Amino acid sequence: MKFLTKNNLWKTLVSISILIPTALSAPASRIDSRLPCQAGIISACPANTIIVSNDHSSPSSQHAHFTSIQSAILSLPHDNSSATILIRAGNYTEQLNITRPGPVTLLGETWDPLTATENQVTVYWSAANSNSRYMDNAFTSILTVAPTQNASLTGAGPTGWPVPADTPYGNSDFRAYNIDFRNVFSEYSAGPSLAVSVSYANAGFYYSGFYSYQDTVYIGKLGNAYFFNSIIAGQTDFLYGFGTAWLQACSLQLRSCGGGITAWKGTNTTYPNKFGVYIVDSTINAANASIAASIKGKCALGRPWNSLHRSIFARTYEDESIESSGYTHWVNGGAENYKLGVTLQAEFETYGPGWNETGRLSGGWDTILNRSIWEEYGEPAKVFQFGYESGGFGYVDWIDWTPWF
Ligand SMILES: *[C@@H]1O[C@H](CO)[C@@H](O)[C@H](O)[C@H]1NC(C)=O
Ligand SMILES: *[C@@H]1O[C@H](CO)[C@@H](O)[C@H](O)[C@H]1NC(C)=O
Ligand SMILES: *[C@@H]1O[C@H](CO)[C@@H](O)[C@H](O)[C@H]1NC(C)=O
Ligand SMILES: *[C@@H]1O[C@H](CO)[C@@H](O)[C@H](O)[C@H]1NC(C)=O
Ligand SMILES: *[C@@H]1O[C@H](CO)[C@@H](O)[C@H](O)[C@H]1NC(C)=O
Ligand SMILES: *[C@@H]1O[C@H](CO)[C@@H](O)[C@H](O)[C@H]1NC(C)=O
Ligand SMILES: *[C@@H]1O[C@H](CO)[C@@H](O)[C@H](O)[C@H]1NC(C)=O
Ligand SMILES: *[C@@H]1O[C@H](CO)[C@@H](O)[C@H](O)[C@H]1NC(C)=O
Question: Which N-terminal stretch is annotated as signal sequence (predicted)?
């Protein structure tokens, strides 16, 4: 097995040497790195790491505690304790849900933990809410992070499914590294087909992949989600929800066009909120050369699921798939969802052949932000809020700021 490339060996050594000066006073876990554990060196994993393997022929399965990921998740106590699960290389076909409050980290075995393109763990599922086969889109998701199933539902109407008032907040600190989630129901949009669903919970995804055609990533009510160096592939509304999502250095892959890339539903709260989706320092490209030729100038950046939609693409590369108006509008039941001065469908310093200033201005659905307005949102601490109605900003202690260690 190949693990330490020159580049990441260097980074590992650097990371250890940076941390040594503080290590004496810090807890031992501060100098732990996820990297050797993900290379399959079990002794380097955090204490009590649970191991999942479904490859019965491999020697690695001898150390495994479970053959499915969800059985490992269900073995965890419903409390605030921390847990790490190492998933050995392989394909798993199952739906996962995380309802417990305590921190959970899922590590995917990989020989290259610093890229999502070499991931060796894939979780497959096949479901789409075509013709309302399910009571709600949320039932199609591969991974759900939410305290209850009711809290995760999408619902309908301007504010969606009412979440019961006594619903507790869900997971405080969920993390996944180097795991691909593929909803393989169809090779085109055939109804909502989720890869991940996060509501009433905090979730971070690092070097991971999310593949589907419609509604790939769903961040529901009071959901906080951070994506780093991850791949998100879809066709229609493939970043959607009510909560707050920040995509840092991610790759968005257009598998065709439909709706928009983002379709957000804002909520009126008694406190100011910044619910929305922020795509920063990222890239938007056709998924491959053959699809690129057929979608040139046809894909919209987003559309308003309700009038309080908020999304911003910042410092992001746009290939020539993007239509000249950037964003588009949405007429639903005869009513125009886009409301001038209310809906925020914005760009800040986006670039590439998909950027067309004349087209943006003549379309009328796109707001070109200046630096002072962008800076009201410009970093995760300015948009992530404490759950429930306190509404304070700066809720980012669940984010891994140094995921390359
Ligand atoms: C977890 O911690 C929170 C905050 O400290 C506390 O309110 C909650 O009761 C704890 N939950 C469990 C299941 O122990
Ligand atoms: C997982 O599935 C992919 C796609 O079918 C296949 O190429 C790969 O070999 C499989 N991996 C394992 C470990 O079975
Ligand atoms: C989570 O999945 C288990 C089965 O894997 C199921 O029994 C349970 O109802 C699910 N919970 C939620 C909240 O979806
Ligand atoms: C989910 O919400 C519905 C409607 O409020 C309610 O009828 C149902 O009992 C709830 N289910 C659970 C498991 O709480
Ligand atoms: C290109 O991407 C499209 C959309 O995902 C897919 O249907 C097609 O098979 C891909 N073609 C190649 C050559 O990979
Ligand atoms: C939010 O509040 C404004 C002003 O009170 C109102 O015009 C708008 O319809 C509300 N939007 C939603 C989605 O409830
Ligand atoms: C830019 O947008 C304008 C107005 O929609 C259009 O006339 C022009 O062809 C576009 N330029 C390119 C390079 O697509
Ligand atoms: C930035 O844009 C806002 C809103 O359009 C405007 O009020 C403000 O004057 C602009 N600031 C600068 C420095 O141009």
Answer: 1-25
- Over the stretch 330-362, which tens digit does the pLDDT of each residue have? 998 899 999 999 999 999 999 999 999 999 999
Q: CB of 359 closer than 6 A to ligand 7? A: yes
Compute CA 185 distance to the chain's CA centroid, rounded to the nearest angstrom.
20
CA distance linking residue 363 with residue 328, whole number of Å: 8
Query: What CATH number is given to the structural domain containing 121?
Result: 2.160.20.10
10 or 230: whose pLDDT is higher?
230
The verdict on residue 13 lying in a domain is no
The answer to whether position 312 is within a domain reads yes
In this structure, the chain runs to a length of 405
| Cβ of 208 below 6 Å from ligand 3 | no
**pLDDT tens-digit map of 78-105:** 999 999 999 999 999 999 999 999 999 9
List alpha helices for 75-221, DSSP H: 149-152
Is the beta carbon of 288 within 6 A of some atom in ligand 2? no
Q: What total number of domains does the chain contain?
A: 1
CA 94 to chain centre: 19
Under DSSP, is residue 354 helix (H, G, I), strand (E, B) or coil? coil
